[in-house]
Structures are given as C-alpha cells and as structure tokens.
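Continuing the series of single-chain predictions for the mutant panel. This is the parent chain; the variants come on the following pages.
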Amino acid sequence: MKASWKLKALLAAGALFAGLTALADPIVIKFSHVVAVDTPKGRAAEFFKQQVEARSKGRIKVEVYPNSQLFKDKEELEALQLGSVQMLAPSLAKFGPLGIKEFEVFDLPFLFDNYDEVHKVTQGPVGQGLLKKLETKGITGLAFWDNGMKQMSANKPLKSVADYKGLKMRIQASKVLDAEMRALGANPQVMAFSEVYQALQTGVVDGTENPMSNFYTQKMHEVQKNLSLTNHGYLGYALIMNKKFYDGLPADLKGVVDVSVKQATEYGNKIAKEENDKALAGVKASGKTAIYVPTPAERLELKKALVKVHDQMDDRVGLDLVKQIYKETGFDPAKL
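Parent structure:
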C-alpha cells in the first residue's frame, strides 16, 4: 500500500511539474526592422514568426516590430548588441560602420546582374565566411535575405550620367555608396530610412536609390516625379541574432530557430522579385511617377561610370573578396 501511495504521489508531482512547465512564460524574440510589413523582408519576418511559434509549440514567441517602431537604422545594431532586441535583418551596408567593412562589397554597383549571381555568393562559402565575421561583435549571422535590385529616382529625368550632376541623393551610411554617388557627380546624403519620405517631400534631398518594394511601400512615388529602372545595385539583408541569446537557447529550440530561418529564407527570397514586380505595377498605376527604362547604350554608360568604384573600394572591402565574387559570378570589368 505504501509503495502504491508513493507511486501516486510521484505521478501527481510529475503531472504538476508538467503543468507548471506548460504554463511557463515563453521565450520572447523581439524582431525589429525598419521597412513595411508588405515588403519582402516584412513578409519573411512574419513567416519566420509563424514557423517558430508553430514548431516550438508556443515555447517561443516572436514579436515583430516593423517600420522603425522600436529603433531607427542607426540605433538597431547597438540595440541588438545590448540585448534590447534579439533579432534584426539590417541591410548589408549597416555593418561597415560596425567595423566589418567587407559587407560593403554588396554595395558595389553593377556587381551582380541577377539573383542567381547573388545567391552563388550569399549561399556559398563567401557568404558564410562573411556571416562568421559577425561573431566578434556579439552577433550570430543566420542567413542572407534578398530585397531586390535598386533603381534611381529624382524630381528630374535620369537618363544619362550627366543628369545626376549636383543632385542631393540619399544613401545609407556606406563609404561605397558615397563613392557611387560621387562617381555620378551627385552629392550623397546619409539619412535614416524612416526620414527619407519627408526629406524628399521637403526638398532636403533630391532623390534616392531603392528597390521597388521599398520605394512603393514608403510612398516615395508620391514625392518623386521620376524613376529610372537602372538595376544598378543589389539590396539585401543579413538575418542576425544576439549571439549570447542564440547560444543560450536550449538545443531543441535552437534547432527550431535554425529550421525556421531556413524556411523563411527560402520563402523570402522566392517572393522578393514578385514583390518588386508588384510594387513597380503599383507605381505605374498611381500615375504619379514617370518611369524610364534606360537604353542599352545609356545603361552601359552608367555601368562604365560606376564600375570604377570597384577599384576605388578595393582597399576598404578587400581586393581578394572582390576577386572571389568575380570568380563566382563570372564578371570581368575589363570587358566593358
């Protein structure tokens, strides 16, 4: 009888413990980003949330904060390092000011002609090597996410290189992008993404560069009369997590995060082109911005003017890294 009573007591205690465990507060991942929900990054972040919460059976809760609700461009990386947020997907230009200048290689104009070339780099050993460098800053690099190819906009037509001369063009904080605009005779203006619409509206800057999804969802077509489909550069993101937080996850939940990252990356990269195409159609339908497609000769002129930036930035991003990417993509600037 005593054995039976003890067994019942143990079973009751086990059930109570299981119940308390089930009621334990979930691990919270605050995921902050600066763009709209209906962009490739915004949708991929929501997809990641759904995957993690379902796979963890509620043991992890992901709180997504879009549109700079928590932190602006310049603040978010420091917030991650301090643990104020656990997850970000900043554009690749953001890591230069952090001291990892190699990431600015993605800002080089005309480095990639299409997504296939991008993915040879981001999903191969070159990309993995770059993510590994983030660990010295207390950051775990999880994946690269696409946004799209960048286009130029202003309140005047942008057809030839001469059209850029003297324009105040908003850029992210990147020495490469600074050199890019100067190569066109424009005046680069570093500014937080959340401030761009008002700056364009008030004339603080004359124009900017963006993938179509950002241009449209931030309503820049309302304050930019002209858009030139230059496809001159790539905008992507690094999906990152606070290293201490990531390392401290239980092994099974770390596995949930890793699998969810893989699924969200595949999903986000798949919809990136689709979202940019939809955004272009939205701008066209608005009738507020004149859209220009450069002729092959005009695009070649732009390419020749901007590829010079590759040589100028060799010392900053690393000549060996540039050569590795050329090898992966088959690009040869000498053939221009």
